[in-house]
Amino acid sequence: MAQDHDHGHDPAHHRGAVAGAPAHQHVQGHTHGHTHVDFAEMLPLLVREAELFSPAYTEAASWLREQRPEPGMVVDAGSGPGVVSCLLAETFPGARVVAVDGAEPLLAEARSRAERLGVADRFSTVEAELQDGIGDVEYPADLIWASRSLHHVGDQRAALAGFVRGLAPGGTLALLEGGLPTRFLPRDIGIGRPGLQARVDAVHEEWFTRMREDLPGAVSETEDWPALLTAVGLRHAATRTFLVDLPAPLSDEARAFVVASLARRRDGLARRRDGLAEGLTPEDVTTLDRLLDPDDKASVHHRTDTFVLTALTVHVGVKPEQRSAGPAPE
Q1: What's the CATH code of the domain at 246?
Q2: Which of 139, 238, 315, 317 is 20 to 30 Å from 227 by CA-CA measure?
């Protein structure tokens, strides 16, 4: 699962986390017209985004360490290419880390990354979709990290209940959902009608709604994540938001991410059966094409005002300890 970022729904974050379809388990094999997401195909973008956003993930992991100092087993549910999985392995040096995802190409990348970073001796992968939990993990998890993977499951509440079953008593679930859309451009970019990115984001919101409706077993759910944690038997312990703030001028890596993200949005528009989405005009599409044209000095390849700004929100729930049976009656 890749992780997504946009609006809490974009598949680049964690599978982790991209601006064209929602991140993070990445539900391989769900092909529903223009809402299909092929996370294996998105591998380079997923890696680029997760690496770019690593400072925020590192801050989030350090915060989790304050609450759960020494977990023995950490599961990354919807791990994608394993960037955050390996970061968790570094944050919790005494833990075994299991990356769970539905796409074997992403898990292969996760294993290779763990090998390169020297954590492979306590790192493993499980290929599984997240509809029923965290798959065939050997031991209950002390900490489950699920970053923008839950919203790729039709019945989110049932998947959360599966996560809870995979938690050890007293274990912690860290759910990254929500936050804010990733922004790249100022309101007025000097070409086209001002407010282009807000309109493109609105089109993506509609895409996201349709994507959720097309998922197998889709169940409508109010996105009150703390309430959902409570509904599946966890105690909501905390919520915190982490900022990704890469101001202009961008590094080459960040600029490449912006280009890839906008290109994915543009490709999504081209695949829509209903032509241009409501809210976008032919002028908007022309402006988007100019922003992606490397020969155009007004493009994001050359602009000095391009930035990356988003917010990642993590909700933490704790599984109650099992009560002792007490002394036997006399």
Answers
A1: 3.40.50.150
A2: 139
Contact criterion met (CB below 8 Å) for 229 and 175: yes
DSSP per-residue string spanning 278-296? TT--HHHHHHHHHHH-TT-
Look up the domain containing 268 and give its range.
6-316
- Residue 240 has a CB neighbour count (10 Å cut-off) of 14
Domain count within the chain: 1
Element of type H or E holding 269:
helix 252-271
pLDDT in tens, 258-285: 999 999 889 888 776 544 566 789 999 9
In this structure, the dihedral spanned by the alpha carbons of residues 188, 194, 200 and 203, taken in order and rounded to 10 degrees, is 150
One-character DSSP codes across 301-315: TT-SS--EEEEEEEE
pTM (2 d.p.) = 0.87
Tell me, yes or no, whether 328 lies in a domain: no
Give the number of other Cβ atoms within 10 Å of residue 316's Cβ. 22
The pair of structure tokens assigned to 182 is 């990733």
Has residue 325 been placed in a domain?
A: no
